[in-house]
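User: Show me a protein chain along with its predicted structure.
Assistant: Here is one chain, sequence first, then structure tokens.
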Amino acid sequence: MNKLYRETIGEGDRHLVLLHGWGLNAEVWRYTAERLAPQFCLHLVDLPGYGRSEGFGAMTLEEMADAVLAVMPEKASLVGWSLGGLVATQIALSAPERVEKLITVASSPCFCAHENWPGIRPDVLQGFQHQLSEDFQRTVERFLALQTLGSDSARQDARLLKSIVLNLPMPPVDVLNGGLEILRRVDLRQPMTKLAVPLLRIYGALDGLVPRKMVPLLDGLLPASRSEIIVKSAHAPFISHPDDFCELVEQFLVAE
């Protein structure tokens, strides 16, 4: 069986697993990990088929969660960005005894827009799936640009995300399609009401993929969780506003 790539840095006695989003890899967390390393033992994981975790095909959300569980410490907190937030949430639902705390970043239990639920229009996601087979690299680059749109540092942030993708092997088209299929179909809103671990949800106020309109809806659905919105940030708040982001993470993880 193939094994996921995992890099461990930091000296702290609290374990923290960082999971990236669609199309990217664990290098997206590099600055965040360096900032948090004095306090935590961080585990940067490339999701199945992404970056250095090669040899995987398209997977379901449950299969991705199981693959991460196989390489993470026996007990750890999880930080999941975007698609990685779904994977982290699935781990917390299926193996709560392995998870101390959960942080989702610019993520949603249901990415696809429905009646009375804000999100990405289904035809947009289907369009990306169709375009992947026609112009693979341009489609990925377009999606990355969408993630930074609106923030003051949008151009700089988009360049950084693009370099993170291009510096490592590109994920196969079937892996990327599988990830888009998860974003299109998965709905964890009701399962999350039974979540048994402390949850912090971090959002970007200008996020075009995970609209801030969903924040009060989830506040009502998950009253035991905490939500924070980073002003002037889009879909990658840990890149555009690293100090604000790391401060929120540190405060939540050290609080008893």
